[in-house]
Amino acid sequence: QDALDSNLMLETEEEGKSRELLEEPLNNGQATATTDLAEPATPGNGADTDSERELNRNDSEIPEDLPVDSNWEDVYDSAIPQVSSTHSSEQGDTDFLALSRKARTLHDYLLWQLNLTPFSSEDYAIATAIIDGISEDGYLTTTVDEIIHSLNDEEIGSEEVEAVLHRLQQFDPPGVAARDPRECLLIQLEQLNDQDAPYRLTALKLVRDHFELLAGQDLNQIKRKLKVNDEQLRETNALIRSLNPRPGTLVSETKPDYVTPDVFVSKREGVWRVDLNPDATPKLRVNPEYSKLIRRADNSDDNQYLKNHLQEARWFIKSLTSRNETLLRVASKIVEFQRGYFEHGEEAMRPLVLRDIAEALEMHESTISRVTTQKYMHTPRGTLEFKYFFSSHVSTAGGGECSATAIRALIKKLIAAEKPNKPLSDNKIAGILAEQGIEVARRTVAKYREAMAIPPSNERKRLV
Question: How many C-beta atoms lie closer than 10 Å to residue 451's C-beta?
């Protein structure tokens, strides 16, 4: 874009085609325009202009009275285009107001409910200060003392703030304005009724009095404390798991940031092929009108200025072409190396580093690093960054190599297939991988598990 703005010789193909289409009717209509101008119509001779004739025609067509059961739009075409949301798909119109609508935030949603709720002026100020301290997850991140200090009113105490906070905790979404996960779950449980949630009282007691046991999933201790059997504990746990520990996410709406892939990968006739995305590649050309103005033998400043811009434009277009060729070569080589991934998934991912691609393409490693940074590939398995296909290698017992991505996929698969009441420990997972010929330490398994946001075995334990 900077090059387009600074170089008059550069233009996009779309701009060039639009300019040529506009010039064609102008060139074709020069003779007609000259003839019309040679014999202008004068009102004094009894001849009306086109606009006057149009006005007279419209005046003669307007009836004195409109039908009482009709609208103006039913008889005459409105000069203002109407945007209809119900018929937009049929008429091809676009609801521009809906497209430009700002995303609703949790803060705006709470303020909207606050304005609909009767509060005194003092309580309204307290409620506003509390809402300002609520995070996007729905939790109150400021303390009562900090809220009192921000209000700068000596007559407001902690009791008043607690009372207003209790009212705000009844707002939607359930669990909002809680100060910790325990309070968030309690608020949601208290808003349920016993008919829809038969184990609500048991869940309330578990969260209120034995939250540490619940977090650690100490099932034997929980059954002893609550005096329940396996079936009752299973239903109680299911009720608690149905609650939302991050209520703010139910309201916060953010505009999606879509990734535009640089290349497309598809399998055609049994062969994996890579194609550049035409929408992601700028289509530039040299402006032919300006290039014609250059005179070879002229050494004036203006002519030299045009020559320099023409040379820069050609160099820039050549650089873009070279970039696209390099991008396509790197993407094709990655697909060639990781064909097993495209065929079978993450477990077949091969270890790959930048040096491997650089040596295969006879390029410098820094060039491969620049090409693969923030570049995306649209594949049958999703839109993935080029860097995703690069991972370190781990030696196997047979003398081969296994990629870290494949090991993570194996760990995830083992955990997904484990028994809920007897989850696999990191040491046990390391032993299973060793049986498959993959020698990894327990600390490595823990590191990969934490990178995938999978909790440890004691927190994964639950009843069937």
Answer: 11
pTM of the model: 0.59
Q: List b or e across 431-448, with b for residues whose CB sees 16 or more CB atoms inside 10 angstroms.
A: eebeeeebebeeebbbeb
Rg (CA), the chain: 35
Q: How far apart are CA 409 and CA 415, in angstroms?
A: 10
What are the DSSP calls for 224-246, one per residue? HHHT--HHHHHHHHHHHHTS-S-
Determine the 3-state secondary structure of 166 from DSSP. Answer: helix
Which residue reads 């535009």 in tokens?
260
What pLDDT, in 10s, does the model give residues 255-277? 667 888 999 999 998 899 999 99
Where does residue 288 rank: exposed (0-12), middle (13-18), buried (19+ CB within 10 A)?
Answer: exposed
Q: Which residues contact 111 (CB under 8 A, 6 or more apart)?
A: 128, 131
Cα 196 to chain center, whole Å?
36
Distance of alpha carbon 429 from alpha carbon 447, whole angstroms: 13
More confidently predicted of 280 and 374: 374
| Residues across the chain | 464
Dist. CA 376–CA 367, nearest whole Å? 16
Say whether 284 sits in a helix, a strand or coil. Answer: strand
Q: Residue 43 pLDDT more than 80?
A: no
Q: pLDDT for 100-155, tens place per residue? A: 445 478 999 999 999 999 999 999 999 999 999 999 999 999 999 999 998 888 88
Separation between Cα atoms, residue 451 and residue 310, nearest integer Å: 51
Q: What residues form DSSP beta bridges with 402?
A: 394
Rounded distance between C-alpha atoms, residue 225 and residue 219, angstroms: 10
Q: Please count the CA atoms within 13 angstroms of the CA of 282 that sit on its side-chain side.
A: 17
